Amino acid sequence: MSILIKNIKQLIQVHENNVLIVKGKDMKKLPIIENAYLYIQDDTIVEFGTMDFCEGIDAETVIDATGKIVLPSWCDSHTHIVYAGNRVSEFVDRINGLSYTEIANRGGGILNSAKKLQNTSEDELYKQSVKRLNEMISMGTGAVEIKTGYGLTVEAELKMLKVIRRIKRDSLARIAPTLLAAHAIPSEYRQDKTSYVNKIVKELIPKASALRIAKYIDVFCEEGYFSVEDTKQILEAGKKHGFIPKIHVNQFNILGGVALGVEHNALSVDHLEELNTDDIKALKNSDTMPVALPGCSYFLGIPYTPARQIIDAGLPLAIATDYNPGSSPSGNMNFVVSSACIKLKMTPEEAINAATINGAYAMGFSNMYGSVTRGKKANIIITKPMDSYAEIPYAFGHNPIDTVIINGQLWT
Ligand SMILES: N=CN[C@@H](CCC(=O)O)C(=O)O
Ligand SMILES: [Zn+2]
């Protein structure tokens, strides 16, 4: 199977060499070829260049992209798309004045989703989750991290992992599975958090490891959830079983979790709505990717991650949807890219770098995804006609996507 896309107005995020991460000032650079072609064979990007060099190239499928932009698919490095039902009633409660924390303290929030998930069969959970993933693919996302964390019992967390395994096997999207058993303290452990942490460390992590599905271990390091000490214990237990740390940190409070993540070589530290100079210092000279989740700030009305502070300090930044039922019920990366420009004051170039190559890095996939590079996987977006790629974030809330190619196949 071969696809030739020709007469491309702008082919963007083109790298001759296999870049893995883009940091600081370099995030403002977005390499482009004007009036370009792109040639795909099977699931791989094989060739590209200006139209002057397209003569003689033929393919089974030829797409005329006159007036359109072509770019690598979005890489969404932080989602919780395996969940049951929704939390619409809490959305209405928040409009009527309750805070996210007040709802959680009443047994709503993550515990509400856990109750629903525990009572949902694996098949039904798979069905609901795949529907979300397919909608994300049609909006241009080609690689997705998926977390557990709505099980909160050994049995239900393993059920979530099995659902993620089925999705990974069946979908054309590239999936990064993460074990997030430390997402909230189950009500039966409210007075005895230590026993839940011990259960995760002694029982759940070994059982999850034996299933060989999850690659990453995550913890919600936050007041009322897991302390820095709990987080350390869980990350260390995870690392012993070969999991790589990725943590939820600084969403509401700064506890010191960023430095802890860096010390444990976390692949990413996510949220960072609150951030101080010690956090920035800790991230410098590390391999840890900071990840901003503007959809969560938008939905909950909490501060936006200070992206300018992060990038201007010479650090990299990725952006992701945080797609989940409680704090960000949307998998639309186009909206996330717009929000990054409008609310995080990132330039379109920075936002696109954050949503492609740096998102891929935050999943450990940037050797194969996140840029238009020969040999990389053919996950490609063709936009509707537009004058420049800056129109993708500019017209917020619109659908800029015309055609999606995922793993070398046209998505219909
Ligand atoms: N902050 C922790 N976890 C999710 C929210 C989960 C929920 O409310 O269901 C997040 O990343 O925003
Ligand atoms: Zn999250």
TrEMBL record:
UniProt protein name: Imidazolonepropionase
GO cellular component, one term: cytoplasm
MF (Gene Ontology): imidazolonepropionase activity; iron ion binding; zinc ion binding
Binding positions (Zn(2+)): 78, 80, 248, 322
Catalytic activity of the protein: 4-imidazolone-5-propanoate + H2O = N-formimidoyl-L-glutamate
A biological process from GO: L-histidine catabolic process to glutamate and formamide
Function summary: Catalyzes the hydrolytic cleavage of the carbon-nitrogen bond in imidazolone-5-propanoate to yield N-formimidoyl-L-glutamate. It is the third step in the universal histidine degradation pathway.
Domain Amidohydrolase-related, chain residue ranges per copy: 210-410
Protein's pathway: Amino-acid degradation; L-histidine degradation into L-glutamate; N-formimidoyl-L-glutamate from L-histidine: step 3/3
Cofactor: Zn(2+); Fe(3+)
Binding locations of 4-imidazolone-5-propanoate: 87, 150, 183, 251, 327
Note on how the cofactor is bound: Binds 1 zinc or iron ion per subunit.
Residues where Fe(3+) binds: 78, 80, 248, 322
Protein's organism: Winogradskyella wandonensis
Compartments, as annotated in UniProt: Cytoplasm
Record: residues binding N-formimidoyl-L-glutamate: 150, 324, 326
InterPro entries: Amidohydro-rel, HutI, Metal-dep_hydrolase_composite, Metal_Hydrolase
A Pfam family reported for this protein in Swiss-Prot or TrEMBL: Amidohydro_1
Keywords (A to Z) from UniProt: Cytoplasm, Histidine metabolism, Hydrolase, Iron, Metal-binding, Zinc
First-tier enzyme category under EC: hydrolase
Coarse class of the protein's main subcellular location: cytoplasm
Keyword field contains Cytoplasm: yes
Similarity remark: Belongs to the metallo-dependent hydrolases superfamily. HutI family.
Record-listed E.C. numbers: 3.5.2.7
SUPFAM superfamilies per the UniProt record, alphabetical: Composite domain of metallo-dependent hydrolases, Metallo-dependent hydrolases
